[in-house]
Amino acid sequence: MAVSVPTDINSELLGAGGIVAPAQAPGNIDGPWIDRTGFESASAIGMLGTATGGPATQSLKLQVFDADDNSGTNSAALKPDGVNAVASVTGATGNGQMTQLGVKFQNCRKWVKVRGVYANSGGATPKNDVAVALVLGGARETPTAGPNP
Hints:
This protein has about 150 residues and is an all-beta fold. It has a single domain (about 15-120), classed as Jelly Rolls. It has no helices and 9 strands. The chain has strands spanning about 15-25, 25-30, 35, 40-50, 55-65, 75, 100-105, 110-120, 130-140. The strands form 2 sheets. Strands 2, 3, 5, 6 and 8 form a 5-stranded antiparallel beta sheet that branches. A 4-stranded antiparallel beta sheet has the order 1-9-4-7, with no helix packed on it. Strand 5 and strand 6 form a beta hairpin. It is elongated and about 50 Å long. The model has no long low-confidence stretch (mean pLDDT about 85).
């Protein structure tokens, strides 16, 4: 019996939502609430630009939240095993670095979003451009192509 290996991952993924936060001071960067119906997993992706203000250290970590509806009612950090919240451990720590967090949607409500947590220290009011995105995967059915197939 031959096993079919997919060669077109684009037909199995859907870029669902993200945000670019230019000149971000330390804090949270929240993506939009996304209806994850029909998908079993996601990849949260975050990236730092080039910092201004000369920070001694900086970091970008990712979290995924779920909620009851698209306004975030009863939102909470996603706990796929019912106990531990999903969060990136190392994150991005330098200019131009990227971090990624894989998430399975077991025990997950219908609405999800990605949050980037940007931190820095030292320097003169340092800031950085931050981008975060959530790509849905594990489609139960092939998704409709988005604007950039």
